[in-house]
Amino acid sequence: MTRAEDRILVQEYLAHEAEPIPLSQEEKAELESRIRKALKDQDAVLVAHYYVDPDIQRIAEETGGCVADSLEMARFGNRHPASTVVVAGVKFMGETAKILNPEKRVLMPTLEATCSLDIGCPADEFAEFCDQHPDRTVVVYANTSAAVKARADWVVTSSCAQAIVEHLDARGEKILWAPDQHLGSYIQKTTGTDMLLWQGSCIVHEEFKFQGLEDLKALYPDAAVLVHPESPAQVVEMADVVGSTSQLIQAVQSLPNERFIVATDNGIFYKMQQLAPNKTLIEAPTAGNGATCRSCAHCPWMAMNGLENLLHVIEHGDQEIQVDETLREDALKPLRRMLDFTANMNLKAAGNA
Ligand code: SF4
Asked: Pathway it belongs to (predicted)?
């Protein structure tokens, strides 16, 4: 699939989705209290991504769940004893939780919340691509369907992709990478690894504009520029820090700058502001003045997670993730490889600390 076809498909998909209606403070308070009760009644834990509604992130934290990047979400759901894991994020995150925890019930506020990277990498076309390059180790980003993961040798997230590719490169392996072309080229450039890239992209990060960022940086020369590597290369080149959501949050806390220009989904501002309340955060520019853009600095699929559908699914259990058992077993192998690799990485880091 070409990038143009990819974008048309995504735009058509989004055109059918209604914009959420804002809730009053009273409505929110009522929903929150019912969500807290329903989580207890159902022996459920809420696991939320940094990009979802701040109210959902707060409830997850206050009820003993977690707010994290996709790697930590997977780890948390795996070790938490609750029999139901409620994933507020997008579908591949719910599928990952189910692949790792087949015995648990995995629910999501809506199964319609997907990802342009997942849509742009259909399993059958991807399998053909892999068949054409049997000499390459297949490394896929977590933002893919269970079927695409099942065809892979390794799954990675943006927080561990570079370390895993370096490890494979050191073993002399050539990589077939999918689906995000920007993250793929960034890793190719930083590691010098032989990588063949699938041409997918994230519709949110792809909107960040180099020219606008340069203008903003001229206005705030003291600001540090933080960029997620799913952004276009020119934007990445302007970054003081390039990293996963967790790494960018860490940068806001540890760098001495008082001001930050942030090129990733603005849902992350909740956690950044919570951990570094004295820092000023500025959204990196997207489509420019007067543009109408439903994916500008906020993922339209992450935005489908709301308090109302969250309560509904905990109470009714009707949006449950199902993964075919054979597919699950095949997708588990590359996922386990990633989790084992990152656990070792953390052990080594702790040993060196
Ligand atoms: S922000 Fe981009 S990569 Fe993340 S879920 Fe949305 S479309 Fe996918």
From this structure: Cofactor biosynthesis; NAD(+) biosynthesis; quinolinate from iminoaspartate: step 1/1
Tokens in use for 256? 């001495």
**pTM reported for the whole predicted model:** 0.91
56 lines ligand 1 (CB under 6 A): no
Q: At what angle do helices 307-316 and 25-41 cross, to 10 degrees?
A: 30
Looking at the structure of the chain, the number of domains it has is: 3
Task: Tell me what pLDDT residue 5 has.
Answer: 62
Do 64 and 84 lie in one domain? The reply is yes
Host domain of residue 193? 117-203+327-352
Which ligand 1 atom lies nearest to the CA of residue 205? 2
CB 155 within 8 A of CB 338: yes
Q: Which residue, by CA, sits nearest to atom 2 of ligand 1? A: 202
**Within-domain flag for 78:** yes
Q: Kindly state whether residues 102 and 122 are assigned to the same domain.
A: no
224 shares its domain with 162: no
Known binding residue 143? Answer is yes
Give which of 141, 135, 76 is closest to 104, Cα–Cα.
76
Residue 288, pLDDT above cutoff 60:
no
Q: Given the CA of residue 90, which atom of ligand 1 is nearest to it?
A: 5
Which tens digits make up the pLDDT trace of 95-148?
999 999 999 999 999 999 999 999 999 999 999 999 999 999 999 999 999 999
Please state which of the ranges 4-13, 90-99, 200-209, 225-234 shows the lowest mean pLDDT: 4-13
pLDDT of residue 8: 65
Q: How far is CA 103 from CA 65, 136, 323, 352, in A?
A: 19, 34, 12, 36
Q: Would you say residue 2 lies in a domain?
A: no
